[in-house]
Amino acid sequence: EAGALWGGRFASGPSAELAALSKSTQFDWQLAPYDIAGSRAHARALATAGYLDDTELDAMIAALDRLESDVADGRFVAAESDEDVHSALERGLIGIAGVELGGKLRAGRSRNDQIATLVRLYLRDHATVIARHVVDLVDAIAAQATAHPRAVMPGRTHLQHAQPVLVAHHLLAHAWPLVRDLERLRDWSHRASASPYGAGALAGSSLGLDPVQVATDLGFDRTTENSIDATASRDVVAEFAFVAASIGIDLSRLSEEIILWSTREFGFVRLHDAFSTGSSIMPQKKNPDIAELARGKSGRLIGNLTGLLATLKGLPLAYNRDLQEDKEPVFDSVTQLEVLLPAFTGLVATLQFDEKRMAELAPQGFSLATDVAEWLVRQGVTFRDAHEISGELVRFCEQNGLELDEPTDEQYAAVSPHLTPDIRPVLTVEGSIASRDGAGGTAPERVAEQLAALTERTAGL
Ligand code: ARG
């Protein structure tokens, strides 16, 4: 059969049904530039080992360059009969260089070591793109924090008012997980910097080709240690899918808050027209679709990861065709993040916060009750008693429709003699926030330091 890489021992070509099942060019064509880069490196290794003379090497490289530009401008595309990107490109190379020269390139390599190498090259490139997008998002969050240095909001646990915090502090709490994702990508890229090329089908090559030469040529730091592991493992792919899912989850958690914040009931933010959508029937609507798509896509990213892990489980060494199923999920994770992150960053960068509304809500729900208890502790009351007294004050206020700072001096004293009028300065949102000034706390000077630390941590990523 024309173009197949393995016809020799078969009396007939593959059935149409098998060909339809087996074919992967519809998704692995994206790897074509990496396959060609691998071929150039492999050609040079063949030349070093004496299998191509200088003239042949020059002709081979020229043919591969030509093939690369033909692929880039769409003059060369996969044919219906091509099994995969590797077969298609060999067909293309032979078309340019002739079968005499083109037929020499495959010596000493297998699609098994090729594909393991190409997927790493692809992911390394896209890791850089995704990291840049995540840095942009972290910057957008930091810019919002910088723009609202004193704004306050109700901090929540269990979605109930808990303690007031700075808006900047809350926003930065969404930035740090993304910074850790960036660090995960950096750590991942170290593990992904080993080249499997030269592992052959599973056992290495007998032709004396130098895997280190190929690795260096392709921009890897080193080669894989074990040719079986090199062709059989995909944890590098799964780990990338994990980081993608983690980014998705981080986006999804911020999305959920943006969706809530933009409701009439919360009213904390307004969405920019350019980053929100309307309704086909309800003229008044302004919907947080970007946040909802982020929340939805995070499920998809998790699915890509878990599907991949399930594919890997129980596979015997070394290569099995199941491994072809690694690509579509991880390619999808890449595609989704690359389209999602810029839109999401735009959404965050253009959020308009209603500082007045948030300030109004910050002290409500008795969110200063902990401040009452901690003030009592500073007066020498045990925390156990202080908690009890503060709780009784909350109950008194709730029964009488008052906020914590509204009872008279006499009413305070009736709840507990420890509640003297000196407590009043503590019962402000600003006082509460300023007092939480330990490392990592919400006090304005700590948050300013945190912003500086964030910028510094992100600089190298
Ligand atoms: N398309 C395969 C994959 O994605 C690579 C080719 C290896 N095929 C084979 N029959 N050994 O994993």
UniProtKB/TrEMBL annotation:
GO terms for cellular component: cytosol. The keyword Cytoplasm applies. Residues 18-303 form the Fumarate lyase N-terminal domain. Keywords: Amino-acid biosynthesis, Arginine biosynthesis, Cytoplasm, Lyase. Pfam families: ASL_C2, Lyase_1. GO terms for molecular function: argininosuccinate lyase activity. Pathway: Amino-acid biosynthesis; L-arginine biosynthesis; L-arginine from L-ornithine and carbamoyl phosphate: step 3/3. Its main location: cytoplasm. HAMAP family: Arg_succ_lyase. The keyword Transport does not apply. GO terms for biological process: L-arginine biosynthetic process via ornithine. It is found in: Cytoplasm. Its EC number is 4.3.2.1. Residues 366-434 form the Argininosuccinate lyase C-terminal domain. SUPFAM superfamilies: L-aspartase-like (SSF48557). It catalyses: 2-(N(omega)-L-arginino)succinate = fumarate + L-arginine. It is an enzyme of class 4 (lyase). Belongs to the lyase 1 family. Argininosuccinate lyase subfamily. This is Argininosuccinate lyase.
